[in-house]
Design goal:
The chain is an alpha/beta fold. It is about 55% helix and about 10% strand. The strands form 7 sheets. Strands 1, 2, 3, 4, 5, 6, 7 and 8 form an 8-stranded mixed sheet that branches. A hairpin with a 2-residue loop joins strand 12 and strand 13.
Length: about 1650
């Protein structure tokens, strides 16, 4: 890929970010559908109008009221959504002539939607100068194929006519109107590109008439022709034009930039003449994102205004039209040098002021400037500053301005007239300024330039103030004489290093004797083994102090528990631990820890014990499953009712094992009856219904027997008749069984082909003999046994078959014997009723004799007559039991339905089973199973047991409630006798008598818990005692103590009496407090000798002891006197006087301010050119105004009041004349892209403000048009995001639900391309009138590098207003909204002059606060007046979300943090965008908007936010903490700092001695006031700032900073100043202090 192609691809990727062709863009997919019950919508639908007539009338300055739909839904025809075009009007109807725009929306959606459209457009206008509100005329209805033969429908607006909405109060609320915005009418560019890129479909152009107005109908005609051809050729649904019209907001801010950044469109009509990438290497680097080699380094940065301007004149010096601090001045100088710059401007550091100065200075150098910012406020602030300097007419503000606004600006410039200006006076002013500045700087240099004395560098300032300090300290006349005596001593000048070493040693040595005597401190020197080195002594005293501290802590604890040291010493640790374990066991029981253990409570426990025992006894009779039913009366009643029903419906004679069987039997009965009746014929059914259940059951049993058995019906009936109510039933059963067995034997013999008749003939005896003979025959019996042979021959008599083997033969003969025997028994049977033959026949047929007689027994129990039995049998014999449907189990005998008819039985069994089953099931699964298995005969006993148990539980519960001795849930069920016994046992185990008496008192009179806590305190004290003795056993301390108690021969220190130990420790404590004194005593004399200093030392010490003046101060005075003589101090100071310096300073300030003020007039005079010089006279292109260019076009347009040429054409055809009139053009990236000619380097300098919020792709075409760039912003503030560029259409979508894409900013990209070496930072913070408003951000975001000027009071202006009743839900916190309104009204009531802005952390809360604010404005005159007062400027009362507040500032900022506990008190850790990347940068912006005060209305506490790695929540947590405490907890802050040098400390001390509270180095970050005196009447504020002309003054960047700027800033914050001049204080410091004292008193009296 070629380099050009690669660059083109990179540019395309960047440009694609600008154009949203997706369905989320309403310009592509305008969604008419709204959610049901929606509160509002995103559009108003125009009906019953002619769009062209509306546009025509709007163009001639008409305003249309927007009206809702008031038609009766039921009685009137609805409006047609398709509008009529101008050419289609057949008659001029009244609605076409009025000044209303009829919409289809009804109230209340109409008003809510109007308000929504109005606010969104107002926000876009205020923030970015973009008018987003348009009347859309015509929609393209088109389709996109999503999958085969499936199409998605789209509606896209075609013509967009920009309008503005006006909101006015009316009697019924608000009235909404629209008027022309005087911006160009355009086609939907997104739709044009979508159609062309994705479908190759080109929409026709929107042609303009002579006056530049759109020809609407001509466009639609052309489009319809194209669509007709397209529909003919393409598949799918036809595309068509729908003549709809809406009023809606559209987001197209980046569309013009997308067009403008197409650098490769040289062949297009409105394309770039030359590709900027062919001419600008720097632009290539920006697109590629690589460091540029085309950047000239900044060069020398040692820039000092005083020095650098010394050799310049008024013509060459940078033309500053506003003040500039040192950091700003460097930026201005480098900008004028033509360097490409990055300017980092933290909040409130004067970015706008710096840009204003840069623009003024560049204009003076005849540079053409493009000043660009996305937000309107950024440009407006600079333009206002230029207007204040009368230079605004050289600028053209086209940021979102209408055609009329731009033409009016041009007209105003052409009508401007310039007053005369005395240039010579301006030159003289600069010369005087330089001269005075030189004199002030000479004074500073004289005092602070180093001098060499004895190879040592020292300044006059140091000499002066060391001497002044001594004079202040020794202001007593007597001591002054001693000081003079010391100065007269002849001492050696020693170097500074030795001097500093000498001072502490000399003082210590001089003091030692006197202090040892006065302190009566010789005792320590007499002690044995006292260390003589500092480390050893320090170690010893630290250990002893540690032990003493431990003792004091123990002493406090002992006093708290009212016992002494010996009491606690006597307690045995084992006993203490054992007792604590018993208490812990007690606390784990259900006994209440808050009761006392005394006789009354023990008696009450005994009562409860009796009741628990009673309950446990009753509980033995219950199954565990029953217990839950006595926990609720409702459940108990349900169970009791069920058991009573069971008892009532079940008789004692029933044979069921449990209730489940009983219910199953009832269910079986109903199923069986239903099945049987269903399978009978009609006549049989009637019979069956009348038969009793008992007969039915027995008969069915009989029939089932018959069906299942093999007996024939004839034999069955014979047997039935013969046996029914027969007393010989047993005989018949036995006979049948005999006959069956005989039959079985005969069949067995027949199976072996045995002749039964021959068997009978042979008889029982012969077969028996044969069996015996065969069985007794031996191995050879078959050969020799005669009887055996006879037995075998017998076979031939009974069978013709082959004789079997002997064993088998024996078995057959045995069967034959049995058969013969039973046959003989048959003859003895006496069956007279049935007859033997019949009985034999029955025996052969029947299978189950027992089953028959069992069935017969049932029949006999239910039937009296055999005929009835036979009749019933005959009826029920019809049932086919082989059918699965009637395959039911045996029916049980149930007494309660036995005598009922089948119909009655069916009903009875059904009702009882359903009732019982449903009740059981309702009790739950486990109880159901238990009840099913319950013994029915025991129901009455169960009920009685249940009642007894419930009664015992109730008794226990009542006693527990009365006594309050136990804690826990359901104790009436769970409290056990064993548990109570365990508690009593634990009570008995307590050994209270072994401990101090107060333990017993706590236990018996207070509570178990208090006694337990007291024991713990004993243990803690005991442990602390152990630590105390462990410290004493330290090797060095132990050795020291033992050495001084040798007579006691101690093994352990603990053997000593505590008072003896304390005597030693207290002595060592005093030693530790006087450690230096003791060490001096041992070593100072020797160390002084080691330094080799002898001359004058003894004299100094002698004077010190006599006068009480420190030896080091006397030595200093003597030494300074010698050095001052060598440095000629007196001679050099004679040239300066404080009064003269003050006069010079005052003169300098006045001249400096005048010079800057006059620079504006100078520029105005030098920049102005007559109109004829500015307006280019281009050759005529024709007589039509459309063909006019340059000066001719401008003169034509300025004469018109309306229907101006579109700005795009105006800039295209008259650019050179416009830039001559307005060499500084102010635009947003989008307006620049839309209006400026597509040519490179048409501007000399590009200045981008708020660059951290501008995307690189928005800046590329700006860079292309400019030679030099200055990019201004703050990387610690908001980056660009996509949240509000896209037009989301879902009203209910939460802000937190929208994905936010954060982009690299042009500022960050410039850092890569231009490089950090070409980056400068502004450093002085001006915005915050109180340091507390910037301290937080300075610390957490700017490493405390900002120069912050101190506040004139001590407290914090971050006011914390917690919201107690938070109800956060769905992004809204309504109680916090109310709290915000209360804070707002309270602030206005206290100060109506200060401007206010309300900031919320999300969009939902912003909406709610806006609603509340509007309602309050309507009802509250004070608020209404305040709102009106601040409207229409940068100080207006506004509500903004976090995303929109960058660039704003107000006196007071009210912050609603929104997030907090919901109605249930739950707090999530999701804080919207704060949780996301760059959330902390958002907060930095939010926290730095206030000038005077931040009111933090919050439902959060810092403790609510958990620690996490996300920066946003942690910064929020820290700020909440900051607001709660009024200080930064992470920062080691000082209420009053340390003085920077001895003379400041001496002044501070002198003022303190006079009763003043004086703080040193007041301020935070970069600059501090040397000394600040607090107001005697109000210690929360300062009354005077004292500044010294010392090192800080000398190191300042210029006289302007020294003598004017800083002081003016501080005076603006309420400070009064007093300047200390070293010269005056050297001569008479006491007089100067008196003068300072008088000034403080005067100021204090004037501010009582």
């Amino acid at each position: 890929m070629s380099l050009t192609k690669e660059l083109e691809e990179q540019l395309k990727a960047q440009r694609d970010k600008l154009l949203d062709l997706s369905g989320s863009n309403r310009l592509v997919d305008f969604k008419f559908k709204i959610k049901e019950n929606a509160r509002s919508q995103n559009y108003l639908r125009i009906v019953d109008e002619v769009p062209e007539l509306i546009i025509d009338k709007l163009n001639v300055d008409k305003r249309f009221e927007v009206v809702p739909n008031t038609k009766d839904k039921d009685q009137e025809e609805p409006y047609s959504l398709d509008l009529t075009l101008k050419s289609q009007i057949k008659e001029s109807l009244p609605q076409y002539k009025d000044f209303d725009i009829q919409t289809n929306e009804r109230e209340p959606i109409f008003s809510r939607t109007c308000d929504k459209l109005f606010k969104k457009n107002k926000l876009e206008l205020d923030e970015r100068g973009l008018n987003s509100l348009c009347i859309s005329v015509g929609f393209l209805r088109w389709f996109e194929e999503e999958k085969s033969n499936s199409y998605r429908e789209y509606f896209s607006p075609l013509i967009l006519y920009p309008v503005q909405m006006i909101k006015e109060r009316s009697l019924n609320g608000f009235q909404y109107s629209v008027e022309a915005s005087e911006q160009d009418t355009n086609l939907n560019v997104c739709l044009i590109q979508k159609m062309f890129i994705e479908y190759g479909f080109k929409l026709p152009e929107l042609e303009l008439d002579e006056e530049g107005q759109p020809l609407v109908e001509s466009f639609f005609d052309s489009l319809n022709k194209i669509l007709k051809k397209r529909n003919k050729d393409a598949e799918g649904p036809e595309w068509e034009v729908k003549y709809y019209s809406t009023i809606s907001n559209f987001s197209f801010r980046n569309i013009s930039i997308w067009w403008d950044t197409n650098f490769f469109n040289q062949n297009e009509e409105n394309g770039w003449g030359v590709n900027p990438l062919d001419e600008k290497e720097l632009l290539k680097d920006f697109i590629s994102g690589i460091p540029s080699s085309d950047i000239e380094p900044l060069g020398d940065m040692d820039i000092r205004q005083d020095r650098d301007e010394q050799n310049q004149n008024s013509n060459t010096v940078p033309k500053l039209i506003s003040d500039a601090d040192s950091t700003q001045y460097k930026v201005i100088v480098k900008a004028l040098e033509g360097k490409n710059l990055i300017v980092q401007g933290p909040p409130g550091t004067g970015k706008s002021q710096t840009i204003t100065n840069i623009i003024g200075a560049l204009l003076e150098k005849d540079k053409k400037i493009l000043f660009a910012a996305d937000k309107r406020a950024a440009l407006e602030v600079v333009r206002n500053r230029l207007a204040d300097k009368s230079l605004a007419h050289f600028t053209l503000d086209a940021h979102g301005k209408s055609k009329g606004n731009v033409i009016e600006s041009i007209k105003s410039r052409m009508n401007t007239r310039i007053d005369s200006f005395d240039q010579s006076k301006y030159v003289d002013n600069f010369k005087q300024l330089k001269e005075i500045r030189n004199q002030l700087n000479e004074h500073v240099n004289c005092l602070n330039e180093p001098l060499e004395v004895n190879d040592e560098s020292i300044t006059l300032h140091e000499l002066i103030w060391q001497d002044v300090k001594n004079k202040i300290i020794l202001n007593d006349p007597v001591k002054q004489e001693f000081l003079k005596e010391a100065k007269s001593l002849d001492i050696e000048i020693i170097d500074r290093a030795k001097r500093e070493l000498l001072k502490p040693k000399l003082n210590q040595y001089a003091k030692t004797c006197k202090q040892l005597i006065e302190a009566n401190f010789f005792e320590i020197t007499k002690k044995r083994d006292i260390p003589e080195t500092e480390s050893e002594l320090d170690s010893l005293t630290k250990t002893s102090n540690k032990a003493l501290g431990q003792y004091k802590n123990i002493k406090k604890d002992l006093e708290a528990v009212e016992i002494d040291w010996n009491n606690i010493s006597q307690i045995k640790e084992n006993n203490l631990n054992t007792e604590l374990e018993i208490y812990k066991d007690i606390l784990e029981t259900p006994i209440s820890p808050e009761i006392a253990v005394n006789d009354n409570n023990l008696e009450a426990i005994s009562k409860i014990d009796v009741l628990v025992k009673k309950r446990e006894e009753k509980e033995l009779f219950l199954d565990t499953w029953i217990t839950p039913f006595v926990k609720s009366n409702a459940k108990f009643e349900s169970l009791e009712l069920l058991l009573n029903d069971l008892e009532e419906n079940f008789k004692q004679t029933e044979k069921f094992n449990n209730i489940g069987e009983f219910i199953d039997a009832l269910i079986n009965v109903q199923n069986s009856i239903q099945v049987v009746i269903r399978n009978l014929g009609r006549n049989s059914k009637e019979y069956a219904k009348s038969i009793t259940y008992g007969k039915f059951r027995s008969c069915i049993k009989l029939v089932k027997f018959f069906k299942n058995d093999s007996i024939s019906e004839t034999s069955f009936k014979k047997l039935l008749v013969g046996t029914f109510n027969n007393l010989d039933t047993k005989l018949i059963i036995d006979s049948l069984k005999i006959l069956q067995r005989n039959y079985q034997l005969s069949e067995k013999l027949k199976s072996k082909n045995i002749n039964l008749e021959n068997v009978v003939d042979i008889g029982t005896e012969r077969f028996g003999k044969a069996v015996e003979d065969i069985d007794s025959a031996g191995f050879l019996g078959c050969l020799f046994d005669k009887e055996f042979r006879k037995a075998k021959v017998l076979w031939k008599s009974i069978s013709s078959e082959k004789r079997p083997k002997n064993l088998e033969l024996s078995k057959i003969y045995s069967v034959c014997k049995k058969y013969c025997k039973r046959l003989s028994e048959e003859k003895d049977l006496n069956i007279s009723i049935i007859g033997l033959d019949n009985l034999k026949e029955i025996a052969v047929e029947i299978n189950d004799v027992e089953k028959f007689f069992e069935s017969l027994n049932d029949v006999e129990n239910n039937f009296l007559e055999i005929d009835n039995v036979l009749e019933s049998f005959q009826i029920f014999k019809e049932i086919n039991f082989e059918n699965n449907e009637v395959d039911f189990p045996e029916l049980e005998e149930i007494q309660i339905i036995k005598e009922l008819t089948l119909s009655e039985s069916l009903e009875k069994s059904s009702s009882i089973s359903s009732l019982l089953n449903n009740k059981i099931i309702s009790l739950g699964e486990e109880p159901k199973q238990k009840i099913y298995t319950l013994n029915c005969q025991s129901l009455e006993q169960i009920i009685d047991d249940l009642k007894d148990f419930k009664e015992s539980v109730n008794d226990l519960e009542n006693e527990l409630d009365v006594s309050q001795l136990f804690e826990g849930e359901n104790l009436e069920f769970t409290l056990s006798k064993q548990s109570i016994n365990n508690i009593l046992k634990l009570f008995g185990n307590l050994s209270t008598e072994e401990f101090p008496e107060n333990l017993s008192v706590n236990l018996t009179e207070e509570s178990i818990n208090k006694a337990f806590l007291l024991l713990n305190k004993y243990l803690n004290i005991k442990n602390d005692q152990k630590i105390f003795y462990e410290i004493l056993e330290d090797k060095k301390l132990s050795s020291f103590i033992k050495a001084n108690y040798e007579d006691k021969e101690l093994e352990k220190i603990s053997n000593l009496n505590i008072n003896e130990i304390l005597d030693i420790l207290d002595l060592l404590r005093i030693t530790s407090n006087n450690l230096g004194l003791l060490l001096d005593y041992f070593r100072d004399k020797y160390s002084l000798e080691d330094l080799g200093i002898n001359k004058g030392i003894e004299e100094i010490v002698s004077i010190s002891l006599e006068s009480g003046i420190s030896a080091s101060l006397l030595f200093d005075s003597a030494l300074l006197n010698k050095i001052s003589e060598k440095a000629s101090l007196e001679i050099k100071l004679s040239r300066y006087k404080g009064e003269t310096l003050n006069q010079l300073k005052k003169q300098f300030c006045e001249l400096d301010k005048d010079f800057i003020e006059n620079t504006s007039t100078y520029l105005n005079n030098n920049l102005y050119k007559p109109n004829d010089d500015c307006l280019v006279e281009a050759p005529s292109q024709g007589r039509s105004p459309k063909l006019f260019t340059e000066g001719k076009l401008i003169r034509h347009e300025e004469k018109k009041s309306k229907r101006h040429l579109p700005l795009r054409l105006l800039f295209k055809q008259a650019y050179q004349s416009i830039i001559n009139l307005h060499p500084c053009v102010m635009m947003s990236p989008s307006t620049a892209a839309q209006y400026l000619p597509k040519k490179t380097d048409i501007f000399d300098v590009l200045i981008i403000d708020e660059a951290s919020q501008m995307k690189p792709e928005q800046a590329f075409s700006l860079i292309a048009r400019c030679k030099q760039m200055i990019i201004v912003g703050d990387q610690k503030q908001l980056p660009p995001s996509s949240r509000f560029e896209k037009d989301y259409t879902t009203d209910e979508m939460l802000e937190d639900d929208v994905d936010v894409e954060y982009s690299e900013s042009i500022l960050e990209l410039a850092d890569k391309v231009i490089g950090s070496k070409n980056s400068l930072s502004l450093g002085w913070h001006y915005r915050s009138r109180h340091t507390s408003l910037i301290d937080f951000s300075n610390y957490y975001f700017y490493d405390n590098k900002l120069t912050v000027f101190a506040s004139n009071d001590v407290g914090s202006q971050v006011v914390h207003k917690p919201v107690e009743n938070s109800q956060y839900r769905g992004g809204v916190n309504l109680p916090e909204v109310k709290a915000v309104m209360d804070a707002l009204l309270e602030q206005i009531k206290s100060d109506k002059e200060k401007s206010i802005i309300i900031a919320t952390m999300n969009q939902q809360q912003e909406s709610e606060v806006n609603l509340a604010l509007e309602a309050e404005i309507l009802n509250n005159k004070m608020l209404r007046d305040f709102d009106s007062k601040h409207q229409g400027n940068l100080d207006e009362l506004a509500v903004k979300k976090l995303e929109d507040i960058q660039g704003d500032e107000r006196d007071v900022v009210i912050i609603s943090t929104v997030y907090g506990p919901d109605a249930d008190g739950k707090i999530t850790q999701m804080f919207g965008d704060i949780n996301r990347a760059n959330g902390h940068r958002r907060l930095n912006v939010l926290f730095t908007r206030a000038k005077h005060k931040v009111i933090l209305v919050t439902s959060l506490r810092s403790s609510n936010i958990k620690e996490s790695k996300r920066e946003g929540p942690q910064i929020l947590k820290k700020y909440l903490e900051y607001a709660e405490k009024g200080e930064i907890t992470d920062l080691d802050r000082r209420t009053s700092g340390s003085t920077e040098n001895p003379f400041e400390e001496s002044i501070r001390e002198a003022l303190t001695n006079r009763g003043y509270v004086v703080d040193a180095q007041v301020g935070s970050g970069g600059y501090s006031i040397d000394l600040a005196i607090r107001d005697p009447n109000d210690k929360s504020r300062y009354i005077l700032a004292v500044e010294c002309d010392g090192k800080a003054y000398h190191s300042s960047y210029s006289a302007r900073a020294n003598d004017r700027l800083r002081q003016e800033v501080l005076e603006g914050k309420g400070w009064n100043f007093f300047r200390i001049w070293s010269t005056d204080w050297f001569r008479d410091p006491i007089s100067e202090i008196d003068q300072l004292d008088k000034l403080v008193k005067k100021l204090s009296a004037s501010n009582p």
